[in-house]
Structures are given as structure tokens and as C-alpha cells.
Amino acid sequence: MSEEKLSFQAEVSRLLDIVAHSLYSNKEIFLRELISNASDACDRLRYAALTQPELTADDPDFKIDLTLDTDAKTLTIADNGIGMNREDLVENLGTIARSGTAAFMDQLDSKQDGTNLIGQFGVGFYSSYMVADKVSVISRRAGEDQAWSWVSDGRGEFTIGEAEDAPKRGTRITLHLREDQAEFADPMRLRTIVKTYSDHIPIPISLREGDKEPESLNTASAIWTRPKSEITDAQYTEFYHHVAHAFDEPWERMHFKAEGMIEYTGLLFIPASKPFDLFHPDRKHGVKLYVRRVFITDDCAELIPPYLRFLRGVIDTEDLPLNISREMLQHNPLLTKIRNGVAKRVVSELTKKAEKDPEAFEKFWNDFGAVLKEGIYEDDGQRAALLKLARFRSTTAEGMTTLADYVSRMKEGQDAIYYISGADGENIKRSPQLEGFAAKGVEVLLFSDPVDEFWITSIPDFEGKAFKSVTRGGADLGKIGGAEKDEKEGEEETGSGDTNVDSLIAFVKLTLKEQVKDVRASERLTESAVCLVADEGDIDINLERILKQHNQLDSSAQRVLEINPKHSLVKALAKRIGQEGAGDELQDAAGLLLDQARILEGETLPDPVAFARRLSGLVEKGLA
Predict the structure, then answer these.
(1) Is residue 405 a known part of a binding site?
(2) 414 among the known binding-site residues?
(3) Is 116 annotated as a binding residue?
(4) Residue 317 and residue 506: Cα distance in Å, rounded?
(5) What's the CA gap between 518 and 532, in Å, rounded?
(6) Report field, pTM of the whole predicted structure over 0.90
(7) 125 or 257: which carries more pLDDT confidence?
(8) 37 is in an annotated binding site
(9) 188 annotated to a ligand binding site
(10) What residue ranges define each of the domains in the chain, with the CATH number in brackets?
(11) What are the boundaries of the region Disordered (predicted)?
């Protein structure tokens, strides 16, 4: 038998190092993870056998067997599921194929809780190395003749080769327990672990000790089919751990049965923490589809809306045919009804949770709100409910606010819901475009999620109040309460319609020519000298930035440069142009005003050399 020695993928080596060199209070979870993997392997074979019955013809009853050899200090976990061939062993046990793994691993250090890390990747096999110094795997894929052996001490390499002493199908994992892990060679300890963590597994689990007869360890019934009154919170939690390959407590669970034209049962969980790949392009939801308790697939995009991809659990229906193919699932109207029904139920439960426990819901929204907002433009049926559910930060509210609460606080004369978009909430709070709104006491919503730029385009208004970006068009602040007094103060201070200011604006417009769309006096600025805004009807500044980052936009829209007539710099420039007329010095000043506005907007200057020259020249004149 030829053997080959291979190295683990770098990320696997780092993961194993964390597992092996960290301390855990719940090392027993290794058994839960291995049993969970064995259960998944049986589910996959059961589904494959629907179209290839010969795969299970000689052994139709699925099972998971634990064998304990106290003398050799080994524990074996065997299943007669789908099994693995050579390629499967290398891919599943030698690499972490999950998208985004490398980036996530870069953020880790050896002090992190390895159990949570394992759960993030769904690779519970590696938890074996918390209790074993050597692990051997023998597996034969259903329908194939050749069996394969995989052996490793978890220190960077593994050996793979052909196996002789192998099961007819399925996988046999043998753990060579460490000297200090003798507790896991105790049959009573194993019984307790299985009863605690794996009683819900719908496949019989047995334990054989030496030459004794095997004993059954679990009830082997699908938990979602049982009445809620018969299921404890601990059992629900352990099923969540199994189905989600997670280690945290679920934030919320929903166990329900839908009856009527279509019937289905759901047991769904919302995780307490955000999965690391929630926004990765290859992301998938974590809900498994069953038909009459038979696993069909965990990769059915039509089952759950993308904006609920954080859900974990199962949907079991009576109405789909058992032999339904993946292709038929893509266009099945029953799945569309299930999908819509699940979305309605989840959004309804979230609404109740938000009303009952606002503090807990705010934590949930911080983790998953950006995903839920995708549903505002994706799901017409739940759009109104999601809009009411949405939470936002603002310039005046403590914590988060709803749109309804925002509307209730609107100023007299205010007829729009104002918002500003940017990459970071704290940075956009310092935007010069907000100055006039702050002076008037007008609340502005802070949109810091990229999705905000997209859902806002599909919503014309909320309760009759239109949405308006403070970085687009005129500010419309003049008609909001207290305007008369402000206007009079402005006239006394700067002189509304001052010919010198008008001349300065005309000069700046002429000087900048093709660089800006227009130059105008600003109503929104109170402290800053200048700012850039999008003209009414033009693409919003932040949306343009996002589209460029994703190579969805090549050109830039010209912006409007707004000048604050009350600012001391603008006053000085207006006075200079009134006394001396246009000159090179004022041309440099016009360029610096635009550069300053670009810097405030977080843009890269198109000509840093020219900016440095203009700035040096003006500073030199000021010091002379």
C-alpha cells in the first residue's frame, strides 16, 4: 500500500496550533462535533440514495457507533454515511475551503477561544486534537471500491494512502487519547456527553465497550417533529449547536408549524454573534431543507431570502416529492410560498422582540441590521414592515432611532427626512454639510452601511415624508422654524446680496470652469468656508464612491462648490476682489477653496503638486 505525506494548508496549521495550545473548560465538545459530522454524512447518503438506491441496498439502516478500547486508550466514532475518497480526505481534512478564511485567520491570535473559532469554520473535526495526540481516519465513499487512510498527529503534516481494513462504506475515526485525557475513556462519561449534546440526532448512536454488547445512547428522533412542550431549552440549544456548527447561545429561536394549502415545520435560530463571512460574495444561508424528515439539501438558495442568510435551522415540508432534484427546486412555486411564509414569520418575530426588549434588539441590529436592510429593496412583501423595524443613528438621538420616532421629532416647517451617507458614522457626524442643520436643531440620520445607498432609492417616502440627502441640492433650511431671525442676523453680519460676495462667486466659477458644475452661496454652512454637494438629480457623493470602489462606475459627476458668505476667509476674499479686482493671488485662492472642499469630502486631490504650490505661495505672502 503506497502512502504519501502531505502538509496542512497554512490556515489549518494555525487553527490546530490554537486548539492544541489553548485551555478549554468544555473539551467534551469534540465528541459532539464528530457525531454531528457523522450525522451529516448519513443525511447526505440518504439523499443520494433517492436517485441511486444501490448505494444503500446492502445496508439501508443508518447508524453511528462509538467503540471504546480502555486498554489502548482509543475512542472510535464510525458511521455508515456517504464516506470520503482520497480527494475528499485531502480537501475536507487538510484544507479549510470556506471563502474568506485567510483574511479571517489574519485577525486571530493564540489567546482566542478555539471552540468559537472552530464553530466559525464548521470544521469540528479539528476539535479532536483537544483530547488526542494522534487521529486516524479510514473511509470508503459509497459506491466506490477503494478505501483510504488518513493519519496525523496534528503538527503540520498528514499521511494518506490506500486502506485495507475498511468499512463497506462510511468513515471510521479513531482517536488516540492523550495521557491526561483519560476521562474520555470512561463509558459513563461518554454516555453523559452523548445524552447532553447529541440526544436530538435522528440517527441511532450506540456505544460498545470491549466485547460487551452495544448499548443505545439517544432517542434518535427529529427534534423539530416533537411538541414544543416536550423540548427543553437545553435541548433546543444543543440542536442549534448541531445544525449551525456553532458554540454560542442562540439569540432567538422560532419553532412553528405552518398549515393550510402547504404544510411545513420550521425550527430556526438567530445566532448571538455575526458570522465572519456574512458579507462575503460566496455567502450562503444555513437552513437545511428536509422532505418528510429526509434531508434534501443545505444549499437551496430559493428556501430563504438572501437578507435572512444569518438564519440557522431546518425547514421540513410534506408537500415536495422526496426525489426532487436541485434543478427542480430552483423553479418550484411551493418553495416560493415557503420562502415568503418564513420571511413574514421571521420579520413578525423580530418586530415583537423589538417591542418587548429594545436593548436586546439594538444589539441584534448592530450585528445584522445591514443585512436586513437589503430586504427593504429586495422584498416587496416585507418592505413596509422592515422599514418600520429599521434602526438608525442620528446627529441628535442617543442610541438608535426608528423612522417613526424621527418623524415625531421633526421641526416646524420641515417636510423631509434628512440623511447623510458615509463609510463611518463618527466621521460623517463631522461633515461640514451638517453645520446648518445643527444650527437649526434639525436631526439628520447617519447612513454608514453601503446598502443604505441602494434601499433609499427604492423608497419614495415614509409616512408622506420624502428622504433627502444633505449632500445633494439646496438645503431648504430657510423654511424650517426660526428662519426669519436667522436671515436677519445673516443680513446684518454679511449683507445678503453683497455685490462683493457675488463678484467672488462669479470669479471662482470662472476660474474653476470645468472642475465644478456650479459655485453658489451656501445655506448649509455655518463654520466651514466651503463644501462640495451633488446637484439635484445627480448621483449622491457617497454612492459614487461606492460604485467606483467596485468598478461599477468610471467617470465622476461634477459637483457644486458651496461657499459660506459668513466665513472670515470668504469675507476677506470678497473684500479683496472688491478693492483690487481679479489677480493671480485670487486665482490660487479659488483653487485652494476647491482643494479644501475635496479634502473635507475625503477625496484624493487630483494635483497634489499644484495644491502644495498654491498653499506655499499664500503662506509665504502672509508671512512676508
Answers:
(1) no
(2) no
(3) no
(4) 70
(5) 10
(6) no
(7) 257
(8) yes
(9) no
(10) 3-221 (3.30.565.10), 224-361 (3.30.230.80), 495-623 (1.20.120.790)
(11) 478-498
